Amino acid sequence: MIYEGTLADGGEFRGVKTLRRRAGNNWWTDLTTLDVDLTRPGKPALRGRMTLGVQDLVKQAQTVHGTMASDATLFGLATRFLFRVGDHNLKWLVQQKDFINPAIRYAIARFGVQNGGTGEAALTAIGAMQGAEYFGRLIFEVYGGLPAYLYNFPARNAPEDPMPPLAGMKSETVTHITPAGAPISLTRFQGGPKGPVIVANGFGFRGMGFAMNTYPAGQDQSLVGMLANAGYDVWIFDHRASPGNDTPGTQPAVNYTIDDVAAIDWPWAVEAVRQATGAQDVQLMVHCLGALTAMMALMGGHMGHVRNMIVSQFSVHPVTSWFNQMKADTHFAQLLHGDAESRMAATLAAMTGNPVIERLARSRDLFDLRTRVPPTGPMPQQAQLDSAIDALVYAVPFPTGEPCNSPTCHRVFGVFGPVYNHDQLNAATHDALNHVVGPVATWPFVQLSRIMQQGKAVSAAGKDIYFDTPKRLDFPIHFISGEMNQLVLPSTTLRTQKWLQAVLPESAAKFTRRVYRGYGHMDCLVGRNAARDVIPDLIGWLRAQG
């Protein structure tokens, strides 16, 4: 929250108040602490911190004129309001005559008839009370704990369409159904003659997540927007592990392996782009699962015609966090997919008498990362199931100092681990993530677990089939990692770079790497400052390759 004003002597006042759940803080301290900068003509600038005690707050309230003037009537209204903030019942409150009628009478008496006031002033005062409701809602959103979390503020705050087509940019979509019935697609934004560049995202995230309009300059600050504006012919690749293919009339892929993405999806994508553009070869900018599978496709001999590539975060020598290693070692993926005893669900249902618990324990082919706003009134069984899942993942571990009240984030972190550093996301991007994620198939996690356990890319059967011909990667490859990446640690890309330099010593200079300080995993490409700190470097590297 920003407080700014001009003082009587021409000085400038600026105060910053931060409302944020974090270890060791509380709502009262945050609300009554203001970090202040004061500049005055001809005098040194001052910086300090203002704090309010209870008596200070009462005194301050008595000095405020207009919509928040202090008298017994307003105090009573405010008291009722704060109680309802506490029990999350504002909608009920404003429907009660014993609250709304006094509020309207107060506004008219104070601003409509006194001191030459007008009806317009009274209506303005009533409108300002809605601002007080917003302030109370904000307090509840930040400090409301589990009730605020289940209320799902991010889903309520999210824009309707954070990933529209790039304005003024020629675009097209090419779709394909694999022999196994898996939908895959390419979306083109033809910014110019450079490239073509294929951009691929990770597991469970839409490729258009790299083209969000949630930045101050809109999509011009997104990865795809910056590539297109730099004159590149950009092709977003949604492989079968992407929810970008979850469209009406299509069935999402379910029983597939990571090998399938490498052996079937990637060769189609490269050939489709070459045929559409007439280009001899393509450039790749690939992230997470998109990076892993692209490297597996090349190393397995399934595709060629790649002249250079940028590999973001996840390469063929993954090193993961303790949380993901624990899931791999306990065969969590097999349990989720259905290798657990089928009697478990029926047993739980019999013990609890609750069909929602029984559905919660069932095996599932798909798990939806998206969350929904809970309905008002009686909750249907699906809504009860969604709330039960969200309550279960409420305790998922987050990196130190990163509390979050988004059920979507808790689902994402519960399935994958820390996918982004919250400090690097602006609020609009964070709220929009519920549109970016979608259903993920559970069976591919079995192969991912084997890859994590062995520390290198292996087949679905656990066989070492990808490292026989490293010469297939003998072209410029630039690896990037976030310093704070806890999903796949920065040593992941370092291990692959060192392996390539060892097996292809005459080409060692082709394999470069950079680690970005303060960044995590996905936020390297979608973070609030990625357009300043990361993306220009990547475009510069592509440009340097010719």
Layout of strands and helices, then pairs:
Layout: E1 2-6, E2 12-16, H1 27-31, E3 33-39, E4 46-51, H2 54-63, H3 72-86, H4 90-94, H5 97-112, H6 119-143, H7 145-151, H8 153-157, E5 171-177, E6 183-190, E7 194-200, H9 223-229, E8 232-238, H10 258-277, E9 282-287, H11 289-299, E10 306-312, H12 322-329, H13 332-339, H14 343-352, H15 355-361, E11 366-368, H16 381-392, H17 407-416, H18 427-436, E12 439-441, H19 444-454, E13 477-482, H20 491-503, E14 511-516, H21 523-526, H22 530-533, H23 535-545
Parallel strand pairs: 7-8, 7-9, 9-10, 10-13, 13-14
Antiparallel strand pairs: 1-2, 2-3, 3-4, 5-6, 6-8, 11-12
Helix pairs in contact: 3-5, 3-6, 5-6, 10-11, 12-19, 14-15, 15-16
* Helix content range: 40-55%
What number of structural domains do the residues give?
3
Could you give me the name of the CATH homologous superfamily of the largest domain? Alpha/Beta hydrolase fold, catalytic domain
SS field, number of helical segments: 23
pLDDT averaged over residues: 81
Radius of gyration: 27 Å
Structural class: alpha/beta
Describe the structure.
The protein is α/β, with parallel strands linked by helices. It has 3 domains: 15-35 and 48-156, no CATH class; 171-320 and 457-545, Rossmann fold, CATH 3.40.50.1820; 322-441, no CATH class. It has helices at residues 27-31, 54-63, 72-86, 90-94, 97-112, 119-143, 145-151, 153-157, 223-229, 258-277, 289-299, 322-329, 332-339, 343-352, 355-361, 381-392, 407-416, 427-436, 444-454, 491-503, 523-526, 530-533, 535-545, and strands at residues 2-6, 12-16, 33-39, 46-51, 171-177, 183-190, 194-200, 232-238, 282-287, 306-312, 366-368, 439-441, 477-482, 511-516. The protein starts with a strand and ends with a helix.
